[in-house]
Amino acid sequence: MEMSGYCTRMSKVKMKNNTKMSIDSGKAFDFGRISEDYAGYRDIYPKKFYDKILERNLCIKGQNVLDIGTGTGVLPRNMYIYGANFTGTDIAENQIAYAKKLSEECGMNIKYMTVSTEDIYFPDKSFDVITACQCFWYFKHEKVMPRLAKMLKPDGKLLILYMAWLPYEDRVAGASEELVLKYSPDWSGKGETKHPIEIPDCVYDIFEMVYHDEYDLKVPFTRESWHGRMKTCRGVGASLSEEELTEWDTEHRDLLEKIAPEEFEVLHYAALAELKLK
Fold first, then answer.
1. Residue 24 — pLDDT band, cuts 50, 70, 90?
2. Distance in angstroms between the alpha carbons of the first and the last residue of the chain
3. pTM score
4. How far apart are CA 258 and CA 13, in angstroms?
């Protein structure tokens, strides 16, 4: 997933209360550092998350789909059974390596490319759907949006997807988030509340909103899987030094032993925004 610049108004999903319009106050991060853990702990979207996409008749048989910022290919792999022809791209070579490995192990014919979204090129009108799951705020939208528009068919759709825990409503999530902030005080992923995905103004120069939805989800975890999920967030494994990560690891495991049973659910919300070309 990718770091980027921004349009005049950035998504509330990650940028609310961030007057500098930058992620984590510009602190460097690289999900490729934690690709093995990412592959093991980030495939957590419940069935309802995918059902909401299918309800919109998107990512189904007969459609060519481009998944930008694909990471380890979570979205293409989970929606492969519905028959769409998927291509996934990501800037991190390690992420794409795991996406290929996991897909091949399951006999899935999914194309993957290591490329920045700003540098993607496919012929005009190549795709019925372009998806951006958990990554839309990382792109240089002024450059990316015209490029995506050309790659979409005239009746094609851009689908933006997001899911986050709710720290003010879920005790385990809130306590874990506080620990992230101890080690990464400028982490801008904090303090999520349920709301629509806000789209940068420049996107509306080319696209218009067709549909949006926001809904609650209870996602099941064990202590180990929640620990892994937190480790693979941007403010932890993707950005901390090895020494900091070791300290965080010990402290978070101790925290979970005190406040969480062996199995539990964490309250999240999910949001989607479906756009079409003007």
1. confident
2. 27
3. 0.89
4. 30
pLDDT digits over 177-199, tens only? 999 999 999 999 999 999 999 89
138: exposed, middle or buried (Cβ count in 10 Å: 0-12, 13-18, 19+)? buried
